[in-house]
Amino acid sequence: MRAGIVGVGFMGWIHYLAYQRSQNAEVVAFCSSNPAKRAGDWRSIQGNFGPPGEQIDVSGLSVYESMEGMLADESIDVIDICLPPAMHDQAIRACLDAGKRCLCEKPLALDAATAARVASDAGPQSLAVAHILPLIPEFKILVDAAEDGRYGKPITGRFKRTIGPPDWLPDFYDPAKVGGPLVDLHVHDAHLIRLLFGMPTAAHCVSRKKNGVPKFYETVFDFADDDKVVSCGGGVIDSPARGFTHGYEVSFEQATIQFEFAGYADGSTALIPVTIMHNDGRVERPEFDGGDPVEAFVHEIDAVARWINQGEVSPFLDPKIAADALAICEMQQPK
Ligand SMILES: NC(=O)C1=CN([C@@H]2O[C@H](COP(=O)(O)OP(=O)(O)OC[C@H]3O[C@@H](n4cnc5c(N)ncnc54)[C@H](OP(=O)(O)O)[C@@H]3O)[C@@H](O)[C@H]2O)C=CC1
Ligand SMILES: O=C1CO[C@H](CO)[C@@H](O)[C@@H]1O
After folding, report:
1. Cα–ligand 1 centroid distance for 7 (angstroms)
2. What's the complex ipTM?
3. pLDDT by residue (tens digit) across 232-244?
4. Cα 153 to averaged position of ligand 1 atoms, centre (Å)
5. Count of structural domains, the chain
6. Is the pTM of this model over 0.80?
7. Which domain holds residue 246?
8. Ligand 2: which residue has its CA nearest to atom 10?
9. 306 found inside a domain
10. How far apart are CA 324 and CA 319, in angstroms?
11. What is the CATH number of the domain that holds 111?
């Protein structure tokens, strides 16, 4: 699969690294509005996981200033959209108009209605949405267990996702551009909750806000089946000391699974490895390789390659589920 990346920022860089490792896909083009990045200087890129941006070799790549050139490039099989959320809808529609399939970073849009519209207009044959959690082995185990029923049905879940201030993103709290953490960050867990438990009917959310936009929140969800107990919390803490953490405790009918990872500013990490507590008292700790965050993106790119090359549509990348995740975010917004 030959891909062209649109938007050379944190995710453009992480996707680029994943293409370098993939056996099934390669990046052949990118577009950037920034002349230094077009010349290969990606050292200004910042993010909250993975290695810092580097100088890259652009000699074998087609480099464009805007997306239009890439849309006309017949050697590109898939456009990989790594733009800020407010630009996703228009970029996807430009791909559809040009007859190009695309992979778009999460969140699919800033609001549920736009997400539902573009998901339905594009369909899973033209659009895949890059929801990474089900492709991270430590989270995939939940989705696989829910799917094959190895521990019975999922019945309770508590999810956590917190970052330090993302100061390199000036528009982070702008509801018209990125949407703040209740959209841009929480959508990861919203998507996972949708996959594991189905669609909640309501949400009870309390939050501390920045300029009216939720910054830190705790939410309890209602489901049609009131035996499910699901909550989620997180957002932005004021200290950069712990740049990123995520984790969960999910109970199935016959076992409870726990996991938590944190990365700190001094380069240290803390980990509760995936721990399966069986109802009969056995404790199991399956092995997962390494915890390198880029590796999950290789799995993601490979899933996209199977879609492009063999027509195999991954339910994890389904735009309809990505739109449902936005609806879950929206039900938590202050009225
Ligand atoms: N799956 C995951 O774990 C993560 C997903 N994301 C998602 O990836 C997407 C991109 O986020 P991220 O990479 O962090 O953002 P960045 O701001 O780091 O990168 C976005 C890039 O888009 C391009 N761009 C074009 N127009 C604009 C504009 N008006 N304002 C800002 N940027 C513009 C820029 O690239 P250029 O200079 O080349 O033009 C910019 O570097 C978002 O949807 C975000 O939610 C983000 C982090 C993690
Ligand atoms: O996982 C994530 C980490 O924080 C980011 C903010 O920089 C989010 O955009 C993101 O999806």
Report:
1. 6
2. 0.98
3. 999 999 999 999 9
4. 37
5. 2
6. yes
7. 134-298+320-330
8. 185
9. no
10. 9
11. 3.40.50.720
